What we know:
The chain has one domain (about 35-185, about 200-205): Rossmann fold (3-Layer(aba) Sandwich). The chain is built from six helices and seven strands; from the N terminus they run ααβαβαββαβαββ. The chain has helices at about 5-10, 30-40, 60-70, 80-95, 135-145, 160-170; strands at about 50-55, 75-80, 100-105, 120-125, 145-155, 170-185, 195-205. Strands 3-2-1-4-5-7-6 form a seven-stranded mixed beta sheet, sandwiched between helices. β4 (about 120-125), α5 (about 135-145) and β5 form a beta-alpha-beta unit.
Amino acid sequence: MKLKELESCLQQVDVFEEPKLLLEQYPTSPHIAACMLYTIHNTFDDLEGKLVADLGCGCGVLSIGAAMLDAGLCVGFDIDGDALQIFSRNTEEFEIANIDLVQCDLCSVDADVYAQKFDTVIMNPPFGTKHNQGIDMKFLRAALTMANKSVYSLHKTSTRQHIQKKANEWGVKMEVIAELRYDLPASYKFHKKKSVDIEVDFLQFSKT
């Protein structure tokens, strides 16, 4: 599947009907999702036939894209039942069978239950702004516990040094695959601008 074809398919994925501010629910754009998945698939061969976890999966754009690129099985984890309902509807519309959903709070779930159960973990975690400071690192910690090989994640570029320090502490190798402009559309009432560009790193974490 070509990159443009994948992006075109992902544009048909339904997103949050009423995003929840406390959960920092912002959809991953079809363009960013397609670029991430295409790179994971073509450059690193970490999707095809692999067992993939999608943490904070929301409405499922990353899982659905991974399934289209022939992942063996994708399991989406999210705390929000409303988002998972949309995700479930999306999988039905795309007629995708190799996806499972788990509703749980990743910050309090015992990640050891899933320790090294997944080949690859993909995620666009909450950035840890507003009321959720540090949640991005909790997601990353869970992801690294659950993956037996690689984690691919989006994080604000401004947190790169902090994340690199943590990766060193945890004994994992971190690589910046790309620097992206994350176009955040106005989703909430307090947003004054129609959209804001945030500098975001697309990171790969490898277990050494």
